[in-house]
Amino acid sequence: MSETYWSQMFLDPLPGRVAKPRLSGLTMVMDTGFPVSVMRDLLQAGAEHVDFWKFGFASAAVYPPEVLVNKITLCQEYGVLAYSGGTSLEIAVLQGVWQEYVKALWEAGIRVLEVSDGTIDLPLKTRREMIRTAHARGFTVLSEVGKKQPGRFLPVVEQAGLVQGDLRAGADYIIVEGREGGMGVGVYDAEGNVRENDVQALLNALGPLSTRLIWEAPLKKQQIYYVNTLGNRVNLGNVHPLDLLPLESLRRGLRSDTLRPSLYASAGVSHDSGAQNVSPASSPFSHVNESMQSSVENKNLLEKHIPRPTLWVNGEGRSPSDSPRHRKG
Q1: Domains of the chain: residue spans and CATH
Q2: By the 8 A CB rule, do 115 and 89 touch?
Q3: Which residue positions in the chain have pLDDT lower than 50?
């Protein structure tokens, strides 16, 4: 096709979307039991827009092994990192087999490990040992802060301390708890509204390390808030598989919810949208730049441990995009 197709005739109203492999603007999908056929269709249409494919909670244990293998293979084929939810590792800890479990994940082709204590009480020493062990083996390590019980909120100072310590231990990104419902946990009230003061307090406490957070945001209004407030390079998790393309549209300003703020921002005019706006040309989290500049310790930690690109590669350093199905030319 020599002429530009009609859907490719205009630029993204909200520019700056980073292509894969990327270190920011990550999207983590939460799969709670989608059929392989549906998953294949979703990846065919939107693999370029998803970085992590999480088998929610410990649901992987319910799949027939051959189905799970098919799902992992699909993710590898399309350059998406598949992994099992943190509840799986929590169960392994309770049953005293977490080291064997981590080894089995690696042998099965899983290259991401989520370390969490959303349900169990995990000693800090064990938490850091798990992170260091997974990092040394070669996993992309995601740790999580927050509890899953409704109404149980960790103080911001405690969350910031966990984030900093986990990054020092070798975590690549830190997930901010939001569960699959996004209500009454983490930074969300019982109706799923973002408690903006808590978000801002955490951003201010972390400075530049806040770019290493993955905000679990299963609801559309939460996704809108983060994109309008932090920019389209914000990392978002627990996205419903069917919301993959709608979220990507939000990131690019292709929906009214982010198109209108982008128009105001590009004109240098403020607006009352319920969320602080940022210029599309600016870096994410530019509204906390002052606190970032003053946080020397966090800046040094950020430079010391840079996460790896999200594109899965095999032992030979080749990615799924090297296969004939995806090769260009």
Answers
A1: 11-307 (3.20.20.70)
A2: yes
A3: 272-295, 311-329
